[in-house]
Each structure stands twice: as C-alpha cells, then as structure tokens.
Amino acid sequence: MKATKVLFISQEVMPYLPESEISTICRQLPQGIQERGKEIRNFMPRFGCINERRNQLHEVIRLSGMNLIIDDTDHPLIIKVASIQSARMQIYFIDNDDYFQRKGTVADDDGTEYEDNDERCIFFARGVLETVKKLRWTPDIIHCHGWITALAPLYIKKVYSDDPFFSNSKIVYSVYDHDFQNKFRPNFSEMLRLDGITDEDVASIVGKEATFADLSKFAMQFSDGVIQGSANINEEVKSAALSSGLPFLDYQQPDVYIDAYNEFYDKVWENANK
Questions:
Q1: How far is CA 99 from CA 178, 201, 209, in A?
Q2: What residues contact residue 50 under an 8 Å CB cut-off, 6+ apart?
Q3: For strand 141-145 and strand 225-228, is the pairing parallel, antiparallel, or unpaired?
C-alpha cells in the first residue's frame, strides 16, 4: 500500500523567498513527488516581504473569511494562491494583517526575532488545516518543514483526530539547522489550547519559555516519522528523534533526497496501516 496524496506545509518556498536549504527543498520536493505520481498541495506563510504583484498572488475569496481566535483575539484568515507554471504547481499562502504584513519573515531588519512568533506558529498551523478542509482534500502524508510548522502535528492528532479529512493522515516532520534564539513566551502552552488537547499533551512545555529544541521535540511527539533535513541539526533534537521509536530518515544528499523521501512516505504509510 502506498501513499497517494501529500500535503506540504512549509516555512519557506522559492521563488517567493530567497534561496535557502529549506526554500530549495520545499520548491523542488513537491514537484518531484508530483512527478512520481502522487497528488500534492503546498502551503506557506504569506510573509510581508513576498512581492504579490511580481509573483502574481491573488486572494481566494471562497477560502478566506474565517476568523481564528488566539489568546481571546479574533484574527481574520486570508488565503492567497500563486502558481509555479514550470512545475504545474500551486502554492497556497496563509495571510493575516496582524501576523504577516511585516517586511521580515521571523525577524526584523536588525535580526531581532518577533516576540509573537509563537502566535504566528499557532495561526499558521490552524489556518492551513482549516483551508485543507475547505478544499475538501484528504492527505495521506503531511510533511512539515521548518519550526513555524511545528504545531500542525499536535492539531492534526488531537483536535482533528476524528475529522474525516485528517483521521488517517500520517505526519512527517523535517528538522533543519534553521532555528530561533528568542524563546517562546511562558503562556505559549495556554495560547495553543483547543478542544481535544489535554494537560498531558502539553505537559512538556507548560509554563516553559520553549526553545527550538523544546518545540522540535514537541512536534515529534505527535508525528509518525522524522527526517533530518540538514547535514547538521541540533544534537538534543536528533537524540530525541533517534530514541523516539519513530521511523527516522537520516540526512540525504541533494541528488537522491526526492526518491528517498518518496520511499519514506510509503514506509510511514505502510507501517501505520499494517
């Protein structure tokens, strides 16, 4: 049995953001997986530095219009889309004036990371999942790239576990060496709570100023497989991945990773459906 539908939730995608390890993989991998016969969907944040006119982004009215409540405040969810014609591939963008209208991605021009990156993680993950439901599309594999996607595994497994769009989805989490320095705020675990999330689920981060390692391990707690996306990653995170008992794919060279990831998706899918 093989997985046939893969949802990519990505922190960065070329050409919408500058070339980096994550943005390159998240541009090439979906195309490669699509060319290998799987159906795909792609999501990323609509960071303020993305030129909408040059990249021909436009709002998808039928998908927009929902409000997400975070820390008792309503935040409108805006969905935009653009196409990479050469790859026959669409990218959906999660947008909101409060979170994604700044010139930077996760930090300002001086390199100071935004204090509300924790809330932005929450909004992005929830926005993606609500939009996939509106698309009426049921992914077999959900592949999360980058720490801003780290809450998607929690929400899929605990909040959407009985939802027919996600009840059978398996989650692969890629860890990169692209981390953050400013710890998340102590009330992070309270802000992310929704119906279905128990005290036990968030015990590892309750009251903590969560670090990159804390957030990565939290994401793996609700994942079905882990990929080492960079040649070198946080040792604490890698140790946790190796001892988790989850299927683990070590770093793959650029010339072979697409086939390796494709095989890994099928392995995770088969293991879960034995």
A1: 20, 26, 20
A2: 16, 17, 57, 93
A3: unpaired
Q: Tokens standing for 165?
A: 């769009």
8 Å CB contact between 172 and 143: yes
Output the CA–CA distances (angstroms, integers) from residue 207 to 167, 219, 265, in the order listed. Answer: 30, 17, 35
Which of 117, 97, 99 shows the shortest CA–CA distance to 107? 117
**Span 163-175, pLDDT tens digits:** 999 999 999 999 9
Residue 3 structure tokens: 């997985």
For residue range 90-103, what is the model confidence (pLDDT) as tens digits? Answer: 999 999 999 999 98
- Tokens of residue 125, six digits: 């993950």
Query: Could you check whether the bond before residue 139 is cis, i.e. omega within 30 degrees of 0?
Result: no
Q: Give dist(CA 227, CA 252) in Å, integer.
A: 9
Q: Are 178 and 22 in contact (CB under 8 A)?
A: yes
Across residues 2-29, what is the average pLDDT? 96
Residue ranges of domains in the chain:
5-43+117-272
Give the DSSP letter of residue 155: I
* pTM greater than the 0.70 cutoff: yes
Which CATH homologous superfamily contains domain 5-43+117-272? Glycogen Phosphorylase B; (3.40.50.2000)
Positive or negative, the CA dihedral 41, 46, 49, 51 is positive
